[in-house]
Amino acid sequence: MKKLISLLLAFVGALSMMAAQPTIEFDTKSHDFGTIKEADGSVSCEFAFTNTGSEPIVIISANASCGCTRPEYPKKPIAPGKTDKIKVTYNPMGRPGEFNKTIKVRTNAQGKKSISLKINGVVIPNSTKK
Question: Nearest 5°: CA angle at 107, between 50 and 116?
C-alpha cells in the first residue's frame, strides 16, 4: 500500500511539474514601418509580451536575419503575469527599397520554443543633389 501511495504521489508531482510551465504571448508579432527616409537614420519598434504561464519565462536569445537589424531583449526572467518587451532597431543606411526582416526569439516557453517576429517597410534613398 505504501508503495502504491508513493507511486501516486510521484505521478501527481510529475503532472504538476508538466502543468507548471512558462508560456509567452505577444501583443503582435509584426510591425510595418511604412515608408521611411534613409537620411533620417535608424527606426525602432517594440514587441510587448506577457508571461501567461505559471513559471518565469526566459528569453534565451533574439537573433535578426541581417546585421542591419538589432534586437534588444530582457536578460532576466520575467515572472508569471508580468509583461516586458523586445526592442528592434533597423538601420536603413545603404539599403534603399523594400525590406522584410525576421527576428527569431528563443525562449524556455512550453511548446513552441522559437517565435518569429517580423518587420517590414520601404526605404526612400537619400537624394543626390549636386
Answer: 80
Cα-Cα-Cα-Cα dihedral sign, residues 104, 105, 107, 112? negative
Q: Looking at residue 6, what DSSP letter applies? A: H
**What Rg value do the Cα atoms of the chain yield, rounded?**
21
C-beta separation of 57 from 86 below 8 A: no
**Residues β-bridged to residue 50:** 25, 83
pLDDT (0 to 100) of residue 96: 96
Q: What's the confidence (pLDDT) of residue 31?
A: 98
pLDDT, one tens digit per residue, over 68-95 is: 999 999 999 999 999 999 999 999 999 9
Is the backbone of residue 108 left (phi > 0), alpha (psi -120 to 50) or beta?
Answer: alpha
For residue 92, what is its C-alpha cell? 536603413
